[in-house]
Structure formats: structure tokens, C-alpha cells
Amino acid sequence: MFVSMTEMLDKANRENYAVMAINCFNLESAYATISAAEELHAPIIIDLLMEHLQKHVPKEYVLPPIIKMAKNASVDVAVNLDHGKSEAYVRDSILDGFSSVMMDASEHSFEENIQITNEIVELASKFGTSVEAEIGNMGAVAGDHFTQSDMYTDPEKAIEFMQRTDVTALAISFGSSHGIMPKDFVPVFDFNIIKKIKAGTHKPLVLHGGSGCGKENIQKAIQCGINKVNVGSDVMKAQADSVFKSQQEDRNIEYVDLMRNTLEPAKEMVKYYIELSGSVNKAE
Fold first, then answer.
1. Active-site entry in 10, 47, 76, 82
2. Which of 88, 91, 84 is nearest to 106 (CA)?
3. In terms of pTM, does the model score above 0.90?
């Protein structure tokens, strides 16, 4: 069923688990993700990153078939615009049919972030579209630009932000970074940030950059109040590894078989994270 994030995250918030949000950029990855969720009877969020949609295939070609997959699914599926940096692009995405959008104005000043987010919430409310926002900043593994402590979310600012906006969920920074973590590296999380914001808001909170953060970190973050966990790099790496293996075994493998071989590894990785999140059998 095609839904917004609102009810699924409210339920996760009440019952203290998280819903997985998987970054997909093509039909194959979305199909594998939804299939994994159906097998575990779990709600799922398909995250379509604004940057991917601009660099790969435009949203007007990718979004409609993914929405059809969501409508035909046996579990609740939200299709969310991830890290919408442009207010105009986010507005268009609401009109184009996304059931959820992330207005990421975290690079703006605090007051500008509130103003921009409220404008998006006002439009989204007319279409039943949920809105995610972000306070704090996220680093990236690429170029060793990991998230530093001075980029962490200020709990007081986060609480004020949620009091002054009507967002569905808030992404916060407390130690994770975007990208594939180096081998044997596990980031250090500041769980007190989650606890303080949850105590002051009692609303759904989001962990971005979940790939490679480790089982203990993710499960403790959920215990402290995280209700949405974003993962992309680990699933895409599973697919990339599958391509490499297939090419090593048969350099002349047909492209359609090459792509089909990526579906099962993607599904298995998604299922691993669904089980970590505690959302197995939580679908309506």
C-alpha cells in the first residue's frame, strides 16, 4: 500500500522500533527493497535522493513505476524524496506525487531553516504528504570528511525547531556519516543527544548514514528514540559486489542477467537491516 511516512513513524514511535528507509536510484533496487519488506511483513520507506535523480534518471521517469510498486505491495510503502536541498525541487516533488519529502535546509541559518521548512509543510499538508527536516550537519566517508562533534545536533535547537514546525520527523546528527565505512571502523555515537531530543519532543527521530554503523549502535539508537534509519551505501555495495563477482565468473554475461543477479544480495542486505530495526511483522 502506498502511504506517507506519518502513520508508520507514529506507530514506530509509540512502540519503540524503527522503519528502514533504503536509498534506491533505479527500479531494480526499489523492487528488491519492497520484496524484502514483504517477505518480513515490515513497513518500508523508499528513499529517492535528489542528487541521484538529478544525475541518473529524472524523477518523472523513475517515480511513477515505483509508486505503482508501492500501491501493489502487500505492506505499507512510503516513497520519500531524500535530502531535498532545493525548495523549488521539493515543491515540485510534492506535486509530482511523492508521499513524503525531506526538506533539508540544514545548511541555512536556524531561522531560515524554520521558515523554509514551514513553507514546505504548509504545501505538503494540502496533499497529505509527510515532511522530514534536519538539524545539525552530516559528514561523509568520501575524502575523510567524517561527521565531527561540532557538526552534531544541538538538542535545545532541535526541540525548539520541532516546537515551531509541524514536521513528521527530524533527522539529527550524533556520530554517523554518509558512505561506506572503512573496514573494522565503527563510529562513536552520542546517545545523549537522542535521549534529550526525544524527551523534549516525543516525536519520530531519524538516523541518516546508517550503513556500517554496527548492530549495537543502531539498536541502542533505536532504544533511545530513533524511529527511521536510512541505509543506502551497504545495499548498493552488495549490488556492486554482485556485479564484480558475476563479471569475474563470466566476463561475457548478458546485462539483463548481470542486473538480475544483484536483486538477491540487495534483498538480503535490506532484510538484515529490517531485522535490526525491530520492524519485522510491524506492517499494518
1. 82
2. 84
3. yes
